Each structure stands twice: as C-alpha cells, then as structure tokens.
Amino acid sequence: MRHSDVVIVGGGIIGSSIAYHLALRAVAVVVVDIGEPAAPPSASWASAGGVRQQARDPREWPLTLEASRRWPALERELGATFDFRQGGHLHVVERDDDVPALEARVARERLAGLDVRLVDAAEIRTLAPGITPEARLGAYSQSDGQANPPKATRAFAAAAMARGVRYCTGARPVRLRRTGHVVRTVVVNGEPFGGRWVVLAAGAWSAGIAGAVGIELPVAPRAPQMLLTDPGPPALAPTISGTGRRLSLKQLPTGEFLVGGGWPSVIDGLGTPTMSCRVLPQNVEGSWRVASTVFPPLTARRIVRSWCGLEGEAIDGVPLIGPAVGVEGLYLATGFSGHGFQLSPAVGRAVADALVGEEDDALAPLQPSRLADLDAARLRAFRAETKNRALGTLG
Ligand SMILES: Cc1cc2nc3c(=O)[nH]c(=O)nc-3n(C[C@H](O)[C@H](O)[C@H](O)COP(=O)(O)OP(=O)(O)OC[C@H]3O[C@@H](n4cnc5c(N)ncnc54)[C@H](O)[C@@H]3O)c2cc1C
C-alpha cells in the first residue's frame, strides 16, 4: 500500500486548492482523479468564473469574505495568470415589488462586512451602459469580478505539484475501501492508497463514490449550461445578475460575452462514474432571450459556443465541508452548489487547517453533521427533483 498523510479524490479547483494549502503545511498528499484537473465535463472546466461575494447564503459569509480578500493577490501567490479582473458585480431589480427584498439583503450583507451597496437607476446606467431601462435598483459589489476557471484550477494543481503533491490522473476505476466504520484507503486501478484522511472532493461524482460503499450523501448532480458569443468592443465591466432572472452575464477580457445563470442541460448516466451532460437547445434560446432582454447590446453579438458541466448540489444549497458523519477517516468537501469557484481559496485554507487540527469557525455552519437527521421524505423529494432536473426541466 502507498501511504500519504492525505489522499484527495478529485483534482478540480476544490481538491487542488486543498492539496496546495496542505502542501504549504508540509503535509504529504496524493490527488487521485479519473480525468485531469479542469477537464470536461467537470464543474471547474465548465464554470462561469464569477468571483462574487454578494447574494450568498449567510453560512458561506466567512469563507466568501476570506476568498474575496485572497483573489486579487492569488495570481501572484500561485505564480500563474488566470485572467482575474475586478470589474464588480451588479445585481438589478426590475419590479417595484422586488425592491424591499433587495434593500433588506444589502443591509444584512453590509452588517456582515461584505463590500456591497445599493445603487440607483442613474448609477446602474453609468456602471452598465445599455442595460435595460427597467432596472430601477441595484446591489453593487465593487471588489467582485471574474477569472478563468480552468486556468485557475490548473494553477492550484501546478502550485501543489511544485510543493511535492503527487497527482495520479487518468486513474480508473477509483473506489473507496470501507472497513466497518473506517475509510482511510482509496483503491486506484486495484492499487491501494492509504492516508490518515481521505478527502472526497469529486464534485458531482461524490455521492456515487460514497454510495458505492454504503454512505449516503445528500448531494446530487446538476448540469447548468453556458453560452459564449463572438468578441465585441469593451462594453460591460461588472458581471450582471437580476432578481427573477435566470441570468449571469459578463464580458471577458478578450471581448466575448459569457452567459449563464443555471439553465439546465440533460444529464446522461445520472450518478454513474461516466455521467455526462448535453446542451438543451430550448434552454440556449431561453438563456439568450433573458440575457439580451436585460442587456440589449448583446443582440449585436452571436452565440459561437455552448457547453454544460456537472456540479454537485447539496440538498440545502450550501457545501458539505467536514468529517463524514459516522465514518472515521473520511472528510467531505463537496456539494458546492454553484458557489465553489469563488470560495476555493478559502476552502483550501480552511480544510488544510482542519486536517492538521487547527479548525476555525468558518467551517462550522457547513459541517455535514447539519444534515445527519435528514427527514427521509425530504431526501426522497430531493432525489425525485434531481431526476427531473437531469431531463433539463426548469425548476
Ligand atoms: C456551468 C457552471 C457555472 C458555474 N459558475 C460559477 C461561478 O460563476 N462562480 C462560482 O463561484 N462557482 C460557479 N460554479 C461552481 C463551481 O465551478 C464549482 O463549485 C467548482 O468548480 C467545484 O469544484 P470541484 O473541485 O468540487 O468539482 P469538479 O471541478 O467537478 O471536480 C471534480 C473532480 O473529480 C473527478 N472525479 C470524478 N469521479 C472521480 C472518481 N471516481 N475518482 C477520482 N476523481 C473523480 C473529476 O474528474 C473532476 O476532476 C459553476 C459551475 C458550473 C457547472
């Protein structure tokens, strides 16, 4: 058996950030991945790359604040470029009825220390010229922005490898070995890799991997799709979202517009190791319609590419980070529910600290134990909803 201190299953941005931060603490790590870091259809390959602190579940606030402080210096820290750009994030409301909720949210977030403020219609138009005249109030977080997810993921992996982390990629099959209530071994192509901890960071595949040894995780795959346009002249600095709008919109430094917002694709082989996704044409149309309604200058562009990627969605919409309940040796870092890219630098730091025994409060609200007494009916409903979503049904 090969031994390391920690064996990480999954080399996406979460597994690779954890590996990098463990290496900084001189912990011996091996990362096992059936593919490569940031290969399709993983979330870290498909991601929209939004680096946004506003509009998050309060349980994520400590990590999001820490991540937001780390991002501006991360390219320098990792010695790589991944197109980080701090153009701000602007969330707009178009209906008077939605104004009170936005005002209340921004007040809560400001109290928690997030860099966000309300902007009126005139300032919205200065920040995002050409945006729909219906936008009447906005929440603007100036220090938010965007980065390139595959490049950032590979930067974490390269920085981890440079500090001695071993990557075992293209490894198939990968399975956990469970002995009673203990999981400290991962079997890769029949060869056992042992560690004090096994970290399960396999995104959308995590529940299938755990389920194969009888550990049920309340995490399920989902597969949002993205659109990319041809490049245009610089027209939009902030990333854009809107209340009641299934939308995330940004212009990349290279001029293309990237459109997302959680429009589902179709998942084939749901829950299996070879699960994949297919773009759904009617959701491309829906996504484009919403984006060009909110930001009409988009109609001058054309869609040149669309894709989808698989993400792990937790039953309550925030990640599971901490020891698996009732299983010794297994540590979960999964179920990032569409938020993992921004959080990744802070998740890596916090998990590395926890694994060397220096737990801090940031992970307390995200512990898997919060879901230990989950109602069976709720779990059944979640599984049914997952199957529907896998058909591309809008939830
Ligand atoms: C379309 C889309 C848009 C998004 N937009 C944003 C955004 O704007 N901002 C934001 O913060 N977040 C966003 N997210 C979420 C974010 O990208 C993810 O939360 C994050 O990338 C998750 O990283 P991960 O490492 O957990 O998972 P992944 O990147 O999916 O990595 C999991 C890894 O596990 C490997 N694996 C699978 N099975 C096995 C196995 N049996 N053994 C070993 N390895 C295995 C895979 O090959 C893969 O490399 C988006 C996600 C998607 C899909």
3D architecture notes:
Helix 1 packs parallel to helix 9. It is globular, with a radius of gyration of 20 Å. The longest helix has 18 residues. The strands form six sheets. The protein has an eight-stranded mixed beta sheet with strand order 6-7-5-16-17-18-15-21. A six-stranded mixed beta sheet has the order 9-3-2-13-24-23, covered by helices on one side. Strands 1-12-11-10 form a four-stranded mixed beta sheet, with no helix packed on it. It has 395 residues and is α/β, with parallel strands linked by helices. It folds into two domains: 195 residues, FAD/NAD(P)-binding domain (3-Layer(bba) Sandwich), CATH 3.50.50.60; 148 residues, D-Amino Acid Oxidase, subunit A, domain 2 (D-Amino Acid Oxidase, Chain A, domain 2, 2-Layer Sandwich). The termini are far apart. A hairpin with a 2-residue loop joins strand 11 and strand 12. The chain is built from ten helices and 24 strands. Bound molecules: flavin-adenine dinucleotide.
Helix content: 25-40%
Mean residue pLDDT = 97
Q: In which order are the strands of the major sheet placed?
A: 6-7-5-16-17-18-15-21
Whole-number total of structural domains: 2
Biggest sheet, in brief? 8 strands, mixed
Distance between the termini: 46 Å
Rg, Cα atoms, Å:
20 Å
Total helices: the number is: 10
CATH-defined topology of the largest domain: FAD/NAD(P)-binding domain
Unreliable residue runs: none
Distinct ligands, ions and cofactors found in the model: flavin-adenine dinucleotide
- How many beta strands in the DSSP annotation? 24
Which class of the largest domain in CATH terms?
Answer: Alpha Beta
Label the CATH architecture of the largest domain. 3-Layer(bba) Sandwich
Form type: globular
The structural class is: alpha/beta
The CATH homologous superfamily of the largest domain corresponds to FAD/NAD(P)-binding domain
